[in-house]
């Protein structure tokens, strides 16, 4: 019987295909999150790869979940935090920002005092957020801050969703968000502005 | 009326649309009267817009396929067995699922299954995915696909018959057929799977329409875990 030259890749294999179809709708989202969490393409791919390896044996659990995306994000978030903690313990793998380890704990509310009317990041944040400065500041944020800002400010997850996803209280979550914005504002304020051609937004706020 | 402290304390809820209706009204009244909070809100919106404008590059084109293959090699799946007869035509989807059961045995046997018709749109490539459920691995099975007049398999223009030899894993094996209708017509797509003395064939009627329609009919159960195909 003559074989037709259909490329082998056209035929997916059994379990692989099932798994693929389960995760496929979420892969772009997960990769985008991973890139924002980690800050680099290589580490983003590593994180997504590790996630897929981790959840592959849990296909049955994944298939039974009504809304798999938050579940996948939660698993990836935990893996990322575990990796960061592991790297933070390694003398050879410094992390971008300091004070990381204490910020994942929900023991007490480490930021309980920061939410309120005191001048905060919303007041301190300069308006001229040009692309280059923002990219540099983003890379210097600690991973927890990148995660929080990614999920809340960029991807638009609600506080209620994040309470479940990150397993923390509303108050702790808001405090961590506040701290993340404060840190971003600090980093931006300590940088020289880039040229006007690279301004991301309007020019009105350079204070 | 809400004061500045209360507004700042609920700014995250305001931004994410999680305020109670009465609080939204109060926040709106406060904003109309408070220039400082108007500026706070504007800065938050600008921060959000700036962060969202930061590009997140797409992965390498082959990354997902490689990652899934590696995940598969890493350990056994506890995925539950699918029913023998699987398949569905998912409306509003580029991926149409049709399929049939396949139970290889020692005795020669031939099964034939006729599936409900599906609608494809003229001059648009639409992927029909065939689901072959093998209850044990099949080495050297032969797949034979015959297309109706006016429908082409992308990459094989003018060919109405395509066949090839392949191995099937235990479980559901998927085959994606990117089909393009080049003429308004109706006809049957026949897919035949042969392995040794056994064979199974199904037929699905393809209806080519000139414009998009919601006419895709769903006659079979939706595949487990495929709720989010878009």
Description:
The complex is a heterodimer of chains A (about 210) and B (about 230). Chain A has helices at about 15-40, 40-55, 60-65, 70-90, 120-125, 130-140, 145-155, 160-165, 170-190; one strand at about 10. By secondary structure, chain A is mainly α. Mean pLDDT of chain A is about 75; it is low at about 1-10, about 90-120 and about 195-205. Chain B has about 230 residues and is α+β, with helices and mostly antiparallel strands. In chain B, a hairpin with a 2-residue loop joins β8 and β9. Chain B is elongated. The model of chain B is unreliable at about 75-110 and about 215-230 (pLDDT under 50). Chains A and B meet through β1, α1, α2, α3 and α6 of A and α1, α2, α4, α5 and β6 of B.
Order of helices and strands of chain B: HHHHHEEEEEEEEE
Mean pLDDT of chain B: 70
The tally of strands of chain B reads: 9
Give the % helix of chain A: 55-70%
Computed CA radius of gyration of chain A, to the nearest angstrom: 20 Å
Strand fraction of chain B equals 35-45%
Largest sheet features of chain B: 5 strands, mixed
List the total number of helices of chain A: 9
Helix content of chain B: 10-25%
Uncertain parts of chain B: 76-110, 214-230
Category by helix and strand content of chain A: mainly alpha
- What is the straight-line distance between the termini of chain A? 77 Å
Strand content of chain A: under 5%
Largest sheet properties of chain A: none
Shape of chain A: globular
